[in-house]
Every structure is written in structure tokens, then in C-alpha cells.
From TrEMBL:
Cited InterPro entries: DNA-bd_HTH_TetR-type_CS (IPR023772), Homeodomain-like_sf (IPR009057), HTH-type_TetR-like_transc_reg (IPR050109), HTH_TetR (IPR001647), Tet_transcr_reg_TetR-rel_C_sf (IPR036271), TetR_C_Proteobacteria (IPR039536)
GO MF terms, alphabetically ordered: DNA-binding transcription factor activity; transcription cis-regulatory region binding
Organism from which the protein derives: Duganella sacchari
Keyword flag DNA-binding: yes
DNA-binding region(s) from the entry: 32-51
This protein's record includes keyword Secreted: no
Lineage of the species this protein comes from: Bacteria, Pseudomonadati, Pseudomonadota, Betaproteobacteria, Burkholderiales
Domain (HTH tetR-type): residue spans on this chain: 9-69
Entry-linked Pfam families: TetR_C_7, TetR_N
Entries under PROSITE patterns matching the protein: HTH_TETR_1, HTH_TETR_2
Name used for this protein in its record: Transcriptional regulator, TetR family
Keywords carried by this UniProt record: DNA-binding, Repressor, Transcription, Transcription regulation
Amino acid sequence: MNTPIKLTDRKRQAIVEAAIAEFRASGFESTSMDKIAATAGVSKRTVYNHFPSKDELFEQILHELWNSTAAMGPAPYDPARPLREQLMELLSKKMALLQDDYFLDLARVAIAEAIHSPQRAQEMVARLSVKEEAVTSWLRAAQADGKFSKADPFIASQMLQGQLKTFAFWPQVTMGQPALDTAMQKQVVESTVEMFLAYANATE
């Protein structure tokens, strides 16, 4: 049975979504809490009750971005299953995250603000690196199991995830291109897996 969402939680989420829209449209510095309140359809007092400052509101956006990334982390490596099959599942899950509209909106806001704030950019890179370490750990487990010998797990992790982002993240975030259709998503994932298996001297 689904638990009803409380009114206060709905208002909080409306504020976050309004902030994302306004930060995207006008940038962090030019967006006021008044404008966010108006877009969310709540009072300015309500906004401040949930978020005492604009910085804290932005931190919430980053928090949701990190949580989205963590929620789509890989399942534990399974030595009983074929490497190709597990890689396809791992990268398909990552692809689903990269093409999620809400995740892309969060990423656009975070990246735009990071450009104007070097300190925030450093914090973002550090925190994202921790989240993406899960793929590196997964690859280390597969290598320890003798599934591939040539590739360094850290470099391989960056290559695998970077290949997906080349088609299914950066064009959408920086150039406003539409999400990939299902067939193209599958093609990118399959090609990425095949390139890795060939490069890494993998055994199935």
C-alpha cells in the first residue's frame, strides 16, 4: 500500500523543482527566492521554512543528484554469471540514469553553477568520483575473478562510463539534444561492451 505524500513534502518538492527551472532559466546568481516561491506556487515564508538560504536550496539539488547516481549503482559482481551479460545490465542501468529527464535537469543546474564557482566544481567532481567508484570496484572484482587481464579497472571504468556520456549525456546537457531513442541506447551500450571485451582480453 502506497503511503500518501504529505502536503509539506509536496511543497518541498515543488520548491526544488521550481528552483531547478529558475536556475536553468536565469542562473543561480540572478534567481531570487521570491521568483522561486512564485514559480512553486507557495509563499516566500514557506520557501524559507524549508530552505533558510538559496545556497541550502542549491545543496538540496546536488543532494538529489548524488542520490540519483547512487540509486542506479551496479549490482554486486556475480562470478557465476557471464561477464558480457553483467556488463550489459550494468551499462543499461547507467544509460537509464543518464537519459532520465529529472536527472538531466539536475545535472544542467549543477554544471552551470560549477562553471561560475570553481570551489563548487571541485566539490562536485570529488563527490561524483566517489559515486562512480562503484563501477571501478565492480571491475576489480571481475578482474580478480580472472574475467579480464589487460585493462586497469579505474581507467576501464572511466572509459565505459565516458563512452555512454559521449552519446547520452553531454549532447543533452550542453546542446539540448533530445534523449536517445531505445534502439540507439541499446546500440551504444552493446558497442561499448563489445569494445571493452575486445580491449580487455576478456574471457566469457
